[in-house]
Each structure stands twice: as structure tokens, then as C-alpha cells.
From TrEMBL:
This is Ribosomal RNA methyltransferase FtsJ domain-containing protein. Signal peptide: none annotated. It comes from the Eukaryota. GO terms for biological process: methylation. Residues 76-225 form the Ribosomal RNA methyltransferase FtsJ domain. It comes from Rhizoctonia solani. GO terms for molecular function: methyltransferase activity. It holds the Pfam family FtsJ.
Length: 344
């Protein structure tokens, strides 16, 4: 999976350097050292390669993955109460664990799922209960294939046809964004597709969420510059933003979830954010020498949140407050994981 990390956005250390220079962010500095120890170990590389091989070679494992993610959401719900939903949108829904959890918790809940087809490298759907499936509509489609910048004219050379979004605007009280990078030709050709996928999910979520609704989105590395910008942007358009990570599932990994509650999609701040995200999506989809998109740079990212806001005292304090619980969970898990394998 390393190919998708070689991007300008991922390599940026603007935020991480500012954080580790502070006396109130020692946990991040310690975590970075621990990560480097794991990265340098061939034993750890072999472990993860075996794990990836298991996933690639496993047959009909969608059901077990769905149960694992369902349990992860149950675990996260104990830390931050995930709002009860009646109509939710589930982006990157396969293998279906989050959908299964939400449908089980509320017998009147209905959901719409969008996930990458298996033929393009996506996961299969592991929810088999007909009672749940009767309240859930699944669409197999690439999230990035929608026209997510309808206000920007497309290049004449573009022959792409855009499917309509399968929901009414501002109609979902909860939007779950959990799409993951996978190996397929487009992702390998566009090294920036992980960033493009995040931006695509944000755009879809902001169009789908109802006033006062919630967005639960998966991000990676709180200290990553782009992640920090997104966290602060969500704070600007929501009344309450919290971070959460399962303490029982994939705890050593750097990803986590952000729960933005009481979102204001009709606010001027949100409209401005949507406009910025549309420009970034267009840049990553159509610009560049070949017209196939290009990686976004720091000045592009500042459309989301400026360096001035991110590196301000309030900005850094907010990111530290949101990041500390995540860093602590990963640090404790990594300590145990590496010690068990004789690395530390």
C-alpha cells in the first residue's frame, strides 16, 4: 500500500514539526520514535506482509470482516456516543459492518451504501440478514466517478459520463465515510488518489448531510498536515467535533475516526468549504500536463484551512486536544505489539 503515500500532502511535516516542538505534545514525539523503530524492523515488515497475504488469499471473508467492523463501531460508540440515525449514507460501505451496526441498533433506520465494485478492487458485502438488506440500498460505484464539482466546467477532452448521486441533497441525518485505498490501475496511476478519495467523501457528505446532522469520517495521522486542516474545517462547520479509535481492532494503525455533530451545511462557512473542496477535486481529476489530474500542494491545501489558522495557538491546541486520545491508543498498542516481537 505504500505507493499511495508518496504524495506532497503525505510528506508534508508542517504540522507535525509544530506539534512536536511543544511541551504539551510529548505523546506524539514518543509515538513517532516508536513508529520509526517498527519501520526499521524487518520482522515487522514480514508480519504485515503475511497479514496482507492472508487478506488477498482468503475466500468469502466478507462476513468475518463485517462482524469485525460492527464490533469496532460498538466499541467506539462506548467512547463517543454515535447519534441514533433514521436515514444514513454509508460511503465505502463494504464489507458492511457499520451498516449492520446501525441497522441493528435502530429497527426503523434506512441506509444507502456506496462502495467500489469488486471488479475494481473493492471488497465484497458481508451483510446477509434479509431484515437488514430490506432497509438498505447498495450502489456499486467508484465514489470519485461522480461529478463532485458541478459548478466548474469540465475540459472539452473529457468524455467521462457521471452517474447521478443516489440521494436527495441534505436528506441524511448521518453520513459515514469509510472508503479505503485499494490496489487498482487508477490508484496506481494517480499516486494522489488517497487524497482525492478523502476530498470526494467530504464533498459527498456535505451534500448529503441534513442540517443538524452528523458526519463520521475516517482519516489517518492526526499530525498529518492535510488531516489537521480537515479537522479544523469540520470544527468551523459543526457545533461539536470529537475523535475516536477502536481500542480492540487494528489499534496499531494510524487511522481514526472524526465525528462532527450538528453540522450546518447551509452556513456560509460550509458553502465556502464546499467551493474549496470542489476546486481540489477538479485539480486532482483534470489538471496536470496530461489532463489526468495532479497532486495538490501546500498552497492548494490552504483552501481548506490556512497555515495561519492551523499553526495559530488555538489551531494547535484544538488539534492536540483531538489528537491526544488517538496518539495514546496507538502508542500503547504499538508498545505491546513491538515488545511482543522483541523490537523494543
Amino acid at each position: 500500500m505504500a505507493a499511495n503515500l508518496y504524495t506532497l500532502s503525505w510528506a508534508s511535516e508542517t504540522l507535525s514539526r509544530a506539534l512536536v516542538a511543544r511541551s504539551d505534545c510529548d505523546i506524539l514525539a514518543e509515538l513517532i520514535v516508536l513508529r520509526e523503530q517498527g519501520t526499521e524492523s524487518k520482522n515487522i515488515d514480514q508480519h504485515f506482509e503475511k497479514e496482507r497475504e492472508k487478506v488477498r488469499n482468503a475466500d468469502h471473508n466478507e462476513r468475518s470482516f463485517a462482524i469485525a467492523f460492527q464490533n469496532a463501531m460498538e466499541n467506539m460508540n462506548q467512547a463517543v456516543w454515535i447519534p441514533r440515525t433514521n436515514n444514513f449514507l454509508d460511503l465505502g460501505c463494504a464489507p458492511g459492518g457499520f451498516a449492520q451496526y446501525l441497522l441493528q441498533k435502530n429497527k426503523r433506520a434506512h441506509g444507502i451504501g456506496i462502495s467500489l465494485p469488486c471488479s475494481q478492487g473493492g471488497y465484497g458485502f458481508g451483510v446477509t440478514d434479509w431484515g437488514y438488506l430490506a432497509r438498505y440500498k447498495l450502489h456499486w460505484v467508484d465514489l470519485t466517478s461522480f461529478d463532485l464539482a458541478p459548478s466548474i466546467p469540465k475540459p472539452i477532452s473529457s468524455s467521462h459520463s457521471y452517474p447521478p448521486l443516489p440521494f436527495k441533497s441534505s436528506s441524511r441525518d448521518l453520513v459515514v465515510c469509510d472508503a479505503q485505498w485499494v490496489f487498482n490501475p487508477d490508484n496506481l496511476n494517480r499516486s494522489w488518489n488517497w487524497t482525492r478519495l478523502i476530498i470526494s467523501q467530504l464533498l459527498i457528505a456535505l451534500r448529503a448531510v441534513s442540517p443538524g446532522g452528523s458526519i463520521l469520517i475516517r482519516l489517518s495521522c492526526v499530525e498529518r498536515t492535510l488531516t489537521g486542516r480537515i479537522l479544523l474545517a469540520l470544527c468551523r462547520i459543526s457545533d461539536l467535533v470529537r475523535t475516536v479509535k477502536s481500542t480492540q481492532f487494528q489499534t496499531i494503525r494510524s487511522y481514526f475516526y472524526v465525528l462532527a455533530q450538528r453540522v450546518h451545511p447551509q452556513s456560509d462557512e460550509c458553502k465556502s468549504l464546499i467551493s474549496a473542496l470542489e476546486q481540489l477535486w477538479y485539480t486532482m481529476t483534470f489538471e496536470g500536463e496530461s489532463g489526468y489530474g495532479r497532486d495538490i500542494r501546500a498552497e492548494d491545501e490552504e483552501l481548506i484551512t490556512t497555515d495561519e489558522e492551523m499553526l495559530s495557538e488555538n489551531g494547535l491546541l484544538t488539534i492536540i486536544q483531538l489528537g491526544t486520545p488517538i496518539w495514546e491508543i496507538q502508542y500503547d498498542a504499538l508498545c505491546y505489539f513491538l515488545a511482543k516481537r522483541g523490537v523494543v
